[in-house]
Design brief:
Elements lengths: L15 E3 L7 E6 L6 E2 L6 E4 L4 E4 L5 E4 L1 E8 L5 E9 L6 E4 H6 L9
Parallel strand pairs: 2-9, 3-8
Antiparallel strand pairs: 1-2, 4-7, 5-6, 7-8
Length: 114
C-alpha cells in the first residue's frame, strides 16, 4: 500500500473540462475499466484520422464503431500544454472517457503497488 511519504512531492491531478458560451461544462471521466481514451466530441480532436476505424465492445456487450483516432491538446491553467495521444472518436458514446491504463503508460499518472 502507498503511504503519504511514498508519494511524489508534486502530484499531478488531471481533470479536463470545456466551456463554450452558455453550454454546460463537459468532462472527460477517468475510467479504470476503459482500454482506450474515447470521446464523442469530434471538435476535441486535432486532425482526425478517419482511416483508422475500430469496433469498441462495451461492458453490456453492445458494440460501437470508432470513426477515427487522433490527439487532444490540453492546456492547463498555468499555460502548460499536454498532448493526449490516440484518442478514439466514438460518436455513439454518451460520455468522454480517459483510460487510466493509457495515462499511466504515457507517464501522466504514477502507479503505486502494495
Amino acid at each position: 500500500m502507498a503511504h503519504d511519504d511514498d508519494l511524489d512531492s508534486n502530484p499531478v491531478l488531471l481533470m479536463v473540462t470545456t466551456v463554450e458560451g452558455n453550454s454546460p461544462v463537459e468532462a472527460m471521466y477517468l475510467d479504470t475499466g476503459c482500454s482506450n481514451h474515447m470521446t464523442c466530441r469530434k471538435d476535441f480532436l486535432v486532425d482526425l484520422d478517419t482511416s483508422r476505424k475500430t469496433k469498441i465492445k462495451l461492458a453490456d456487450s453492445r458494440t460501437l464503431v470508432a470513426e477515427g483516432v487522433r490527439n487532444i491538446v490540453v492546456k492547463s491553467n498555468d499555460g502548460k500544454i499536454a498532448i493526449i495521444e490516440n484518442v478514439l472518436f466514438v460518436s455513439g458514446m454518451k460520455f468522454n472517457r480517459m483510460s487510466v491504463r493509457q495515462l499511466i503508460e504515457n507517464g501522466f499518472l504514477n502507479s503505486y503497488e502494495e
